[in-house]
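Entry:
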Amino acid sequence: MCETPSWTHICLACQKLFLTPSLYERKLKNTTVYSFYKYSEIKNLLYTKHTDLGFYIYTILAQNSFKKFSESFSYPHKIASLGVDEDIKSGYSHTAILSKSLRNNYITPLYGKLHAINKVKYSGKSKAYRLMHPRNFRVEKFSNDEVIVVDDIITTGLTLSQAVDALTYQGKEVLFCLTLADARLE
């Protein structure tokens, strides 16, 4: 970024120039995943995920994408947004930041409802490795029947597919998934 002094970690001019989202669509089985950025566009920002700076960067990314999405989203009744595996690392949960930014009259973020029992890290791993080491999601009880699933990156789609399967098994309908970035887009 430009390194101009700013009250935010990324100045407003750079946010407008570099962080204006687009909406990309990808299908996973019967679920649509919408992403706001190509992975290559924001990968250096995503690398801050587990650092103190990451809290501020993810908040800016969420405001520029998820929040803007929620401002134009309506639905006949209230639904929930769930972050994938909202483990707190470096003092915050990056998926909770994303889910929180969706709050509006129709979307209520719920926290700690979708946990991976197997805490395996998929970053940099092959699809074969990911298939051999499923996340095994556990769903905590909540009243909403329809949900949006939230994650920061979609690569192979296995994490989101496993999350959708776990929610479907519990009788929930996943309307769609939202991610910041799609790693398949270049």
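The two ends are 20 Å apart (CA to CA).
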